[in-house]
Amino acid sequence: MGDRVAKDALFDSLAGVAKALGSGRRAELVDVLAQGERSVEELAGELDQSVANTSHHLQVLLRHGIVGSRRDGNRIYYALASPRVAGLWAAVRDVAAAHVAELDGLAAAYLGDRSTLDVVTRDQLTRRLRDGDVVVLDVRPVAEYQAGHLIGAVSLPAAELTRRLRDVPKDLDVVAYCRGPYCVYADDAVRLLRERGLKARRLDVGFPEWRRAGLPVQVAS
What we know:
- The protein is built from ten helices and ten strands.
- By secondary structure, the protein is an alpha/beta fold.
- The mean pLDDT is about 95.
- The strands form three sheets. It has a five-stranded parallel beta sheet.
- Strand 8, helix 9 (about 185-195) and strand 9 form a beta-alpha-beta unit.
- Helix 3 (about 40-45) packs across helix 4.
């Protein structure tokens, strides 16, 4: 029969996973890594943090089994330890959205007014893709597109959209997607495209949610 000390040690270890996510920066790292493997330098750029600070947060996640790492020459790359970690992060977001009263206001302050943005559900997009009357834009950074993307999606990062508008077909509906529910890239892309007279909508999920639903994706080998 187990004793109190052993039980405390067990539950402290289990709680360590949650504790590792108890930092906004580490939670953001998990959100980015849900898109695919990235180097420390790339992650630091995404978070607008120093490489040293980013490395510290990654080491915490590594110690608690949330991420894994590999070295390639002078660079270290990190990835989520398993698909279950992405599922855990999605569950944390869902719980927060359902039970944290101020979350809607915080999201609106970051994402802006979404009420004017038309949305396409994943089921609707699946049907449209079969009909071939829609162009899908992956507006995440190129590295994330290369790690994995919706089948048939075209890479057009939000940061490059203004100078590459000529690459967007004018005779088809446009659907943009990015990382997930709290990613601003697709929102900004849709707003810009609509200002330029194109028919554009935002996918209601990001790449990780699409992939977890078992919908067709292309991933790096």
